[in-house]
Amino acid sequence: MNIFLPVPVRTPKAHPSKEEMRCPSPELARMHLIKGKDAIDRYLAKHIKGLSKQEAAAYRNSYKKNICIDMLRQGYHKSFAELFTLIEHWNALREAAGPGSAIWLEKSLAEQPDKLDQLHHFLTRAEAALRSEFYDEVYCNQLNLAYCFNKPEDRWLRNYFYEQCYKTAQLIKIDGGRREAEAHSNMGLVYEEQGQFLKAAEHYEAFYQLTVGRIWKDDTGKTLTSLACEHLWRIYTLLADKMLGNKEHQQAIRTLIKALEMAKEAGNKKMEGEAAYCLGLAYHTVGEEKTAIEKLNTYLEISKLLGDFAGLGRAYQAIAQVLVSLGEVEEAIKYMEMFMVITNKVNLGPSLVDACTFLGNIYNQKGNYSKAFTQKLQITPTSSTWWPGRRTEVTCSLTLFQLVARQKKMLNVYLDPLLLQTSSELWERF
Fold first, then answer.
1. 150 phi and psi, to 5 degrees?
2. Boundaries of domain holding 106
3. At what angle do helices 269-285 and 289-306 cross, to 10 degrees?
4. For residue 3, what pLDDT band results from cuts at 50, 70 and 90?
5. How many domains does the chain have?
6. Residues ≥6 apart with Cβ < 8 Å to 398
7. What is the DSSP string of 393-407?
8. Residue 40 to residue 62: CA distance in whole angstroms
9. Looking at the DSSP assignment, which residues form a beta bridge with residue 217?
10. Going by C-beta distance under 8 Å and a sequence separation of 6 or more, which residues neighbour residue 302?
11. By mean pLDDT, which of 101-105, 304-308, 317-321 is the weakest?
12. Domain membership flag for residue 364
């Protein structure tokens, strides 16, 4: 539905120091080659149950083979099995997508030495830590792998390792739940990126419950509790927008009330203002105009406090729309005129189009056609960055006005001589 301000969907972040965690030289695997065709086949057949001689032969003379043999020689059977599964999964994704797809044109995971090196390095370290039940170290290695694969084409790998982190975090009992909290946050971001907002909300709520009352901070110095509040504000707003689109108005309002509470707890005035604005719009959709104005006035005051002129303009316009619904047209015009003062001061081009059109429509409904047309003619191009995309809209608005006025046979009564100019003369002003 998107009646609210755009709320950007968050995605998991890349590691800030990824270059510092790269694995050792790719020569590592090559140092452990098993010489001889038959020796390779026997070794693989012995250690990997069900692997045929033909499948074993596929590992010869490839960098993938070097990595796999090194894992097996050092006894990292779990790491080998996991790597083998990931390669097979990539192949399955490619086959499912079919020829011509983006993934079809990419190299197989088995043909990308840098990624194989990362997987070899961190999978074996995680397995070694798992044997000693050092679950925090297992978690860190899995998290490093998630950070390694943050490019769009690798996100399925990133998401896989975030899921592994989440499972491992449940086993860590010595940190008060911090790793589990971080894992919930990351899984929430993964689901949010995929558009699965309900699942994302579940993880963010768990993240909040684990961090509330704690002094834990992220690498930017922000407390994890405030980060959880921001995540919940954002996901509740996204959920409410979908609910309004599905006509679930009361559920949307309850969700937006929670979003406002989270914004307040986060101590973020901008978020609080936007939450109040969205809630005001939601109340307006169900006809609760007095409550809508109350919330929109909250947004107005916060915008004044922050010096947010764009926010002030949105608040004035939204309040005016509610006042029109209440029949308080004169009061609505006052708010729209204040809005227009702001749009002219700070050159909010697209907002000026909306304001002039809205105010012109109000005058038109009141029968003040001359003022309505003059208002619409104020929508002149002041910025090439926004005008081309709105010219058709303004043309239609002017044409519609002329048709209405002529239908009412009031053109010569209400319009000044400017309105009697030809269309070409009028558009010379643009």
1. -100, 0
2. 33-172
3. 160
4. low
5. 2
6. 373, 376, 377, 426
7. HHHHHHHHHHHHHHH
8. 12
9. 223
10. 269, 270, 272, 273, 276, 308, 311
11. 101-105
12. yes
What is the Cα 88 distance to its own chain's centre? 30
How many other C-beta atoms can be found within 10 angstroms of the C-beta atom of residue 198? Answer: 10
Kindly report the length of the chain: 430
Q: Is residue 346 part of a domain?
A: no
The number of CA neighbours under 13 Å toward the Cβ of 178 is 12
* 379 falls within a domain: yes
- Pair 14, 219: CB distance under 8 Å: no
pLDDT in tens, 106-129: 888 999 999 999 999 999 999 999
CA distance 147 to 14: 5
Put simply, whether the predicted model's pTM sits higher than 0.90 gets the answer: no
Half-sphere exposure at residue 251, Cβ-oriented, CA atoms within 13 angstroms: 11
Count Cβ neighbours within 10 Å for each residue of 148-177 and write b for 16 or more, e otherwise. bbbeeebbebbbbbbbbbbebbeebeeeeb
224 class by beta-carbon count within 10 Å (0-12 exposed, 13-18 middle, 19+ buried) = buried
Q: Of 281, 202, 277, 270, whose CA–CA distance to 236 is shortest?
A: 202
Rounded to whole angstroms, how far apart are CA atoms 316 and 299? 10
Which of 130, 151, 172 finishes a domain? 172
Cα 425 to Cα 139: distance, rounded to the nearest angstrom:
71
Residue with tokens 């097979």, as numbered in its chain: 88
Asked if 4 and 241 touch (Cβ cutoff 8 Å), the reply is yes
Q: How far apart are CA 353 and CA 383, in angstroms?
A: 12
Task: Give CA–CA dist 403/271, Å, rounded.
Answer: 43
Amino acid found at 175: D
Of the candidates 139, 155, 172, which is a domain's last residue?
A: 172
pLDDT in tens, 299-309: 999 999 999 98
Cα angle 188-234-146, degrees, rounded to a multiple of 5: 30
3-class SS at 217? strand
Is residue 49 one of the residues assigned to a domain? Answer: yes
C-alpha–C-alpha distance, residues 117 and 102, integer Å:
24
Per-residue pLDDT reduced to its tens digit, 164-220 = 999 999 999 999 999 999 999 999 999 999 999 999 999 999 999 999 999 999 989
